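Section 3.1: Structural characterization of target chains.
Under the original work plan, the team committed to producing a structural model for every single-chain target entering the pipeline before any wet-lab resources were allocated. The record below documents one such target. The sequence was received from the expression subgroup and is listed exactly as submitted; it comprises 177 residues.
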Amino acid sequence: MTFQRLIDGCVDGDKECFRLLYEETKDGIFRLIRARVRNREEALDILQETYIDLWKALSGGKFSYSSDGEFFSFLCIIARRRVARLYRFFKPVVSLEDLSDVVPDSDSRDPGEIAFVLDMVEKLNAIDREVIRLRYFEGLEFKIIARFLEQKEGAIKIRHHRALTKLRELLKYEKEN
């Protein structure tokens, strides 16, 4: 299903269309936010503020639909800016509490292994860490990650490859020692 019909309804002030849009997108946006904040309550607060900002942007005509990917990127940028406002002076911490919010289907994985990998991801530089999170925790395509991070798609693919190489080296080194 394309979001165009729902977005058009939101532009016209249709609250039911906005509710449906929220239901379709909230889980992915929540995971994106949850990976960057200290606890579930903060993530829920930011999620609420993100959708309030989205409603204002759509009903105010500040977004014009061209594709679902562009819309999702727009929504991710709103969420990212909300998180940035909250953590302007604090380093975000990924908690292992409620790990299923951050890593989908984590029930089938060993929590110790997940914690180990997350620790290694934290050792990457900020932009590489972000690319890995968006690609693997959020399942976003390179094109959407590029829009979200305001970089070219080719640059994101290179960063992704280099980040994976660094991560493999870190994992290999840590397991050997």
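The longest helix spans residues 153-176.
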